Amino acid sequence: MNSRERLLKTLNHEEPDRVPVDLGGIVTGITKVAHRRLREHLGVEGREQIIDRIQQLVKPDEKILERLEVDTRYVYLRASRDFQDREFPVDVYEDEWGVRRKRVSFYYDIVHHPLKDATIQDLERMRWPDPHAVSRYEGIAEEVRYLHKNTDYAIILNTIGSIFEFSWYLRGYEQFMMDLLINRGFAVALMEKMLQFQIGMFEEILDRVGDYVQVVLCGDDLAIQTGPAISLNLYRKLVKPLQRQLFESIKERLPAKFF
């Protein structure tokens, strides 16, 4: 049984020959420092390639993936060439959404929320990142087709799909939580903007490679250490309908497993 068959069998709730091994995604990743130490321990030469600046996650070296018998291979979206991160003193940068982050230790914390004092009218005036920017997807189709044709690994699209979490990135966590209770019109309008970006991004990537991948990753952050971040009633009323729209849009273009 090869890696692709192993993962698909598992996702179909059938018993594989062994438990599939996964490494390399946003939620199953490895940080720059940990990867460097592992690489040195295994005697693998190379350098770390950052795939997530915020968490300092890197693309695992192929030799390490082979050594650990990892069954998956991730394909990552590219950055848009329409915007370059703005760099500030003391290891602070601003991304294409206008969110500023400062490195505090092994990762970056948000220090500026661009929509902290915004109104619904400001949302309409804001220049939003373009999910249809061609540079985000350059080379991905070729990479996926190569992996599909020349390897037996399970191919996973390392997409995000966040609606709730990305919204409070822009608004601020405390303010967005208050919006959900006392300024719901704004909260929903902001999440709808995020929804449209995510739908556009998934349309672009899945139209290119949807037939060749086994799994599409779509995640959000709706919980804290002790349980849900908001009440289940609030989630079902405000967040879930938007997620349903996103998931239905993805499934229209996707024969693969989706989680």
UniProtKB/TrEMBL annotation:
GO terms for biological process: porphyrin-containing compound biosynthetic process. Residues 119-255 form the Uroporphyrinogen decarboxylase (URO-D) domain. Signal peptide: none annotated. Pfam families: URO-D. InterPro entries: Methanogen_methyltrans, UROD/MetE-like_sf, Uroporphyrinogen_deCOase. GO terms for molecular function: uroporphyrinogen decarboxylase activity. This is Uroporphyrinogen decarboxylase (URO-D) domain-containing protein. It comes from marine sediment metagenome.
